Amino acid sequence: MLSATTRDRPLRIAFAGFVHESNSFAPSPAGMAAFEQGGGYLPLSRGAEILQRARDVNLPIAGAIAHGERQGWDMVPLVWAGAVPSAPVTADCYRTLTDEIVQGLREAGPLDGVFLDLHGAMVADGTPDGEGTLLGRVRQVVGPDIPVVAALDLHGNISKRMVDSADLMVGFRTYPHVDMALTGHRAAQHLDRLMDGAPNAKAFRQLDFLIPIAWQATDVQPAKGLYDMLAGCDDRSCPSLFMGFPAADFADCRPSVIAYADTQAQADAVADRLSRALRAAEPAFCGTCFTPADGVADAMRRAADKPVILVDTQDNPGAGGNSDTTGMLRALVQADAQDAAIGLITDPAAAAAAHAAGVGATVDLSLGGRSGIKGDGPFQGRFTIDALSDGSCHATGPYYGGAHLALGLSACLRIGGVRVAVASEKAQMADRQMFRFLGIVPEAQKILVVKSSNHFRADFTPIAAAILTCAAPGPMPVSPASLPFRHLAPGIRLEPGGAPFTPPHKADAKISQRTRSTERTPCSSR
């Protein structure tokens, strides 16, 4: 590989990012305000702001920029936008941000390469394959000879158009995603190789079943074995295994494998071996899921020296939830749980009321439960205000990796033996600092309820006596078979070993997302 010092001039690389994981059945779409705020990502950034903000954070753009600096690249940052997962991106927002990226490339002048920080499971209103459409436009602008490389999330739903339009795509290998910056660095290294003219054959395989996100964690089986196999491959093949995000209602929602190599035969061999292993693992993608009452009762019986973690997976804001359902809170209060904490519950009105009343005051509140989820509603109760914050939270754990979260007016509310971390902006509870910034010491609790599915594991597993997945009402059911899909590819199994998808008759397809059932769970339930 030639370095900048052995070339006639520094290589000129454009950087851009547009990151969103879209749940077609979630209650709230992502407009420009969601990307301007960031929700745990960087806020909407342009030009030199990207180079300044994308430092010492766990994001692909940060790893790619660090590599570019070491290589002496002439970096041309365009725009970077990321928002917490939600319902699909609005048409206006998608058009505005993709137009800005494409226009920036047109105006950038001569380029040697393009680095894109994407997700892989973006759905926009009117554009089901968000990344495929964007990559197609990027390819039209830069032409066939400029290498285009993208870093993607492990949950990407990969389409043929994405594979055809990008020279190379690199996916995360961990869930929790502790390797986001490392993935950006790896992708940038491969961009260097492609700019040197290396051969680049591609192999792409799609699977025919959906994997529930609750059972995708790469620190437990079967995903651990699959990603260990991936790590054992020759890095020249740059293989990626995408679990898929099983709540995007379009034809390419499914797991997939991509491999690259010097020859087509080499790429095919790697892709075939990995896809066979993934198919063989299908029956193992299951687990035990508790009802809220059973989960709380089990946690109280354990009375361990460390906290028991209860996972409120169906209201995970990292999968499209609004982080405001109250099923787990209700179960804690009804069981008279002591030394328990739950977070984050997103409720700007409750946070504002707490700030108006002040620390030590007692207030009657109607908390959360405003997303219209069947079986859920606001929790009515009398709370004591234990702590207040402006929402500034420095998340230092492995997942957020030092990101500064802006959660808006926030409060710690106490009812009985339960403390509730309330914020005005939603963000996945994946860092112990998201309790600490409101005076809750997570290690001192007997029970912690986290609105997450797996990202919390990176920071909470070291302090956990046990981890129990619970299914309170929420927009991301444990089993994708509970979702009213309309546009999946026919024959896709809706859960491991489950029934194949059959498109509904048009007359029966108008199913309200606000009245769907989220009570079905795969494998065993309690």
Task: Quickly list its features.
alpha/beta, Rossmann fold, 8-stranded mixed beta sheet, 6-stranded mixed beta sheet
Secondary structure blueprint with pairings:
Elements: E1 12-19, E2 29-30, H1 32-37, E3 45-46, H2 48-53, H3 60-71, E4 74-82, E5 87-89, H4 91-107, E6 113-118, H5 130-142, E7 148-152, H6 160-165, E8 168-171, H7 180-195, E9 201-206, H8 223-231, E10 240-242, E11 256-261, H9 264-280, H10 292-302, E12 308-312, H11 327-334, E13 340-346, H12 348-357, E14 362-367, E15 379-389, E16 392-395, E17 403-406, E18 410-415, E19 418-423, H13 433-436, E20 447-450, H14 457-460, E21 466-470
Parallel strand pairs: 1-4, 1-6, 2-5, 6-7, 7-8, 12-20, 12-21, 13-19, 13-20
Antiparallel strand pairs: 3-4, 9-11, 10-11, 14-15, 15-18, 16-17, 18-19
Q: Give the overall average pLDDT.
A: 93
CATH architecture of the domain at 10-198: 3-Layer(aba) Sandwich
| Poorly predicted residue ranges | 1-6, 509-522
Proportion of helical residues: 25-40%
Q: Just give the CATH class of the domain at 10-198.
A: Alpha Beta
Separation, N- and C-terminal Cα atoms: 56 Å
Under CATH, the homologous superfamily of the domain at 10-198 reads: Response regulator
Judging from the principal axes of the Cα atoms, what is the shape? globular
Give the radius of gyration: 23 Å
- Biggest beta-sheet profile: 8 strands, mixed
- Give, in spatial order, the strands making up the sheet with the most strands: 14-15-18-19-13-20-12-21
| Number of distinct helices | 14
Q: Quick one: how many beta strands?
A: 21
Helix- and strand-based class?
Answer: alpha/beta
